[in-house]
Design a protein that fits this description.
CATH superfamily of the largest domain: ATP-grasp fold, B domain
CATH topology of the largest domain: D-amino Acid Aminotransferase, Chain A, domain 1
Largest sheet: 5 strands, antiparallel
CATH architecture of the largest domain: 2-Layer Sandwich
Number of domains: 3
Distance between the termini: 11 Å
Shape: globular
Number of helices: 9
Order of helices and strands: EHEEEEHEHHEHEEHEEEEHEEHH
Strand content: 25-35%
Bound molecules: adenosine-5'-diphosphate, magnesium ion
Length: 291
């Protein structure tokens, strides 16, 4: 059996290589041939007959750790099982889509406003939207680009001035506005879900920034969390159709979980440093069972 591990052809860092090595070990343990494929190394094309063609040997399954949704979709069209599936990756790569698709399922999250779409060649000439926004959210307001990682595209506006500056900057970029959950300042809970079950969790605490991300100085450690955090994370994975998910949860004023974001390809180096479970092995075992 041959399995691909797909990563971006245009981004590679220590976290990516760590995950790759974990899967390589897990594949070897289960006697599955491992092939690390960077997204620019294989060509899928649509032939004149309208069918998708893959050059070279077809894998039996793909562990997809990239966000190239169309590449994943073409692999699926050839009949290859892709984990996570392309649709789930598409939703999770977009914080606005994630919020909208989670909505209506009894999953608590910070109050969220999705920025209205502004065509590339259009401007915002009045305060209609900003005024509506100010009636919906209180300061400080969290502003997030729909697509972003490591906390790098998450901002805090403490007043109307800062909010307007961010609005202007992001006018042509998909983004959301969110109520700042002050009880969770600099702190969040990450839960890993595989095949519908929470298999690991950790908390992250950053005393120097409202964002808990390890990349911004957050410290990851294991702390037992209420079962409710695990069940909300499981529910998110189920609603979004994720085989594998890294769910970020904020801690509400009464200690309750509020969904912050859902990652389809959450890196797990930090998790492995504080929680005793072989994430790649559990995921691969689940995949092999599902095939
Ligand atoms: N509404 C919010 N209230 C309080 N803190 C938040 C809120 N949204 C995000 N954060 C903080 O910012 C961090 C990064 O936000 P997140 O949505 O997870 O983006 P990223 O994909 O960059 O990790 C979170 O881990 C959390 O600590
Ligand atoms: Mg996050």
């Amino acid at each position: 059996m041959l399995g691909w591990f797909v990563t971006s052809g245009y981004f590679q860092n220590e976290s990516v290589l760590y995950v790759k090595d974990c899967f390589k070990k897990a594949f070897a343990k289960h006697g599955v041939e491992f092939c690390h494929v960077r997204s620019n190394e294989k060509i899928c094309f649509i032939g004149q007959d309208g069918n998708v063609v893959l050059q070279g040997q077809k894998p039996d399954f793909v562990v997809f750790w990239d966000k190239d949704v169309l590449f994943a979709t073409m692999l699926e069209k050839i009949g290859i099982k892709v984990f996570n599936n392309s649709r789930a990756i598409e939703i999770c790569d977009d914080k606005a889509k994630t919020a909208v698709f989670l909505a209506g399922n009894g999953i608590a999250m910070p109050k969220t406003v999705v920025a209205p779409l502004v065509f590339a060649n259009r401007d915002e000439t009045d305060d209609t939207f900003i005024n509506n926004l100010l009636q919906t959210l209180d300061f400080p307001v969290v502003v997030k680009e729909s697509s972003g990682s490591f906390g790098w595209q998450v901002y805090l506006a403490k007043d109307e001035n800062e909010l307007k500056t961010l609005r202007k900057k992001l006018l042509h970029t998909s983004h959301v506005y969110q109520q700042f959950v002050s009880s969770s300042k600099g702190k969040d809970v990450r839960v890993i879900v595989v095949g519908g079950k929470a298999i690991a969790s950790m908390t992250r605490q950053n005393d120097n920034d409202f964002r808990a991300n390890v990349e911004l100085g957050g410290v990851a450690k294991y702390e037992p969390v209420d079962d409710e955090f695990l069940s909300v994370a499981q529910k998110c994975a189920q609603v979004l159709g994720l085989d594998y998910a890294g769910v970020d949860l904020l801690v509400g004023p009464n200690g309750e979980p509020l969904v912050c974001e859902v990652n389809s390809n959450a890196y797990f180096k930090g998790m492995q440093s504080c929680f005793d479970v072989d994430v790649a092995d559990v995921y691969l075992q689940y995949i092999l069972k599902k095939l």
